[in-house]
Amino acid sequence: MTSPTLTNTVLYLDGVSVTFDGFRAINKLSLAIAPGEMRAIIGPNGAGKTTMMDIITGKTRPDEGEVFFGGMIDLTMLDEAEIAALGIGRKFQKPTVFESHTVADNIRLALAGARSPFSALFGARNRIAEERIDAILSTVRLTEHRTRLAADLSHGQKQWLEIGMLLAQDPKLLLVDEPVAGMTDAETAETAHLLKEIAHEHSVVVVEHDMAFVRDLGCKVTVLHEGSVLAEGSIDAVSANERVIEVYLGR
Ligand SMILES: Nc1ncnc2c1ncn2[C@@H]1O[C@H](COP(=O)(O)OP(=O)(O)OP(=O)(O)O)[C@@H](O)[C@H]1O
After folding, report:
1. pTM for this prediction
2. Whose CA is nearest to atom 3 of ligand 1?
3. Is 248 in the pocket of ligand 1 (CB under 6 A)?
4. Protein residue closest via CA to atom 17 of ligand 1
5. Exposed end of the chain (fewer CB within 10 Å): N or C?
6. How far apart are CA 218 and CA 167, in angstroms?
7. Any ligand 1 atom below 6 A from CB of 58
8. Which positions fall inside the ABC transporter domain (predicted)?
C-alpha cells in the first residue's frame, strides 16, 4: 500500500503500529479519510478494527506512526478528553443511553454536556436547543418517540438515540462500531439511510461485519487484516479480491 497524503484529510494514519505483549495488533497501518467522506471498515475478528478506533480516540498510544486530525493536529500528543473536544465522537457497539430518561431528554442532556451549563438558563438559547433536539430526533427517526422512556425503545432505536446523542455534540468525525449488530432487517436498512444522511455534514467511519449493510452504505471500503490494510475500494472491488475472499469473505 502506498502512503496516503496528508493534505485535505479529516483523518490520516501513516505507518501506525502497536504491540501488546509482543503481539502486533496494528502493523504499519496507513489510512486517510477525506472531509465529508463515509468509510466502512471490515475485516475478520482480531484484524485490529477496535484497536484502530482506540488509537484514533487516544485510548491506546501507537508505538510508532503518525495520526493526524484535520491535516495538522497530531492526535498522538493528546488524551482522550482533548480528542473528544476536538470533535471526534465515538459510538461503541452496545448502546449506552440514559434508560430512565425520555428520548428527548437524552438528546437534551447530550446537548447540555456539549455546552456551558449556564446556557440552559437563557430562554433564547433554550429555543435554539429545542430546535436542535427536534432536528436531531428527526434525523435519527425518533420524533414520534420523543416522550417515551429510552428503556422502552427497541434495541435498534436505542442505537439511533445514541447516534443522536453523538450528533448533539456536533462532531466533525463520527466513529461507529458495529451499529447494526442485533438489529432487525428493517432497522438495519434504515440505519444505512440514516448514516448516509449524517455523512452529508460529517465524516463517518463505520466498522461493521454485515456485508449487506456495508453494500447499502455505498461507500469506499477498507479491509483490515492482521493490523494492516489488505484491500481498499468499492464493495464490488474488495468482494472480488482473492486475498479478501481467502481471509474474510470465504470463511
Ligand atoms: N489490550 C490488549 N492487550 C492484548 N492484546 C490485545 C489488546 N487489545 C487487543 N488485543 C489483540 O489485538 C488483536 C486485534 O484486536 P481488535 O479488538 O482490535 O480486533 P477487531 O478487528 O476489532 O476484532 P473484532 O471483529 O473481534 O472486534 C486481537 O488479537 C486482540 O486479541
Report:
1. 0.91
2. 20
3. no
4. 50
5. C
6. 21
7. no
8. 11-251
